[in-house]
Write the C-alpha cells for this entry.
Amino acid sequence: MLTNTEESPVHVAMIATHYPHAAHREEFVERVRRVAEAFRSMPGCLSAECWLSAEAVVSIVRWESDEAFAASLAALGAADVDVAFDEREARPREIVRLAAA
C-alpha cells in the first residue's frame, strides 16, 4: 500500500502502427512478433503485443517506468530483430508514446 510520501510508478506505453504492403503483411506480422518477444525479455517490460486491423499491424508495449522504456529501446539495437523502415511499408509508421494517468 502506498502512503502519501510514496509515489506510484509511472507506467509508459508505446503504440506503433505499421502499414506494410499487402505482399509483405505476413512477413511483417512475424517481424513485429519477434520485436515484441525481444521487448518481453527485457527488464521492466510489462507486456508487448501484436494486433491487426484491415490495413495495419499494430504493436503495443508497456513498461513499468521511463527508465525501463529508454533502456529497452537502447537494448533493442543489440537484439537480433529487424526494425528498419524500408520499401516493405506503404507509408510511414505512426508511433505514439503514452504515460499512465
